[in-house]
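Predict the holo structure. Ligand: zinc ion.
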Amino acid sequence: MKVARFHAPGDLRLEEVPEPVARPGEVKIRVRNCSTCGTDVKIYRFGHHHIRPPRVMGHEIAGEIVELGEGVTGWSPGDRVQVIAAIPCGECEECRRGHRTVCPNQESMGYHYDGGFAQYMVVPAKVLAVDGLNRVPDGVGFAEASLAEPLACVLNGQELARVCEGDDVVVVGSGPIGCLHVRLARARGAGRVFLADLNAERLAMAAGLVRPDAAICSGETDVVDEVLKLTGGRGADVVITAAASGAAQQQALQMAARQGRISFFGGLPKDDPIIACDSNLVHYRELTIVGANGSSPAHNARALRLIADGAVPVADLITRRLGLDEVMDAIDVVARGAAIKVTIEP
Ligand SMILES: [Zn+2]
Ligand SMILES: [Zn+2]
């Protein structure tokens, strides 16, 4: 079968390898869609300390079951499934307390295990053990189902930031994650949703699809001033930074309303993670700053439901479909931000 394997930073190879076999407790799937994101670009360029090459990349996975390993029950060949990306251990103190997104023993598809840039893939027993294999509801395509994983991360972020009815929400960063944040905030009953980005072209493309109440080009205007103007000086109830930008995080504090919540959804570069925080803003305005680290298996199941119910449409966000042979083009398109969501159909 064909796979795209990471060998070293800048060295991703299209290779022919034997099909994997489902061992006891595992499930083998025919990958139908594996979508790409900024993480794939980062891995391609810099590698990752959890990846021991060669490793098949790809973590936004949907496909159909072709073979069951010994002892697997409840599934059949032909079942359409979506696979979680982050695998909690299910046994540590955090997992026992229900904090599965921050399991210190977390492993990931495409990092510790071969991922979905392949014609076939084995779902590890550990995924099945934590209910990380989800049945794709009728009417949901494989490409849409593959977006359940990023949507699950967005859902985790908005739960932690308590996005609720009537909230004015600012999303900073108009990539695919920013688009999902706008859609989910709407589904949760947000009042107004504003979308900001430095890049006017990317912002226009995203805004054309997800239709925020205002699109703010932070390359051309002062985003803090603009948000204060739009909210009658009050600021936003929730500010979500879906960009790897310390400046955006600092601005987020300044544009939050009293008792506002700020989600540092996107992480910062490892070598530059320190920001200046006006602690008195946090103190007097009773601000809450929250992080977000991936998603739990339960978030994936709920995200799939949101897609199936039409609460969060995702089909129109998939603007490029490429074959496995074109994986390098996919990485390049994602790196340039030239599409909203790019999916690989192996
Ligand atoms: Zn991703
Ligand atoms: Zn754990």
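The two ends are 10 Å apart (CA to CA). The CA atoms of residues 235 and 257 lie 4 Å apart.
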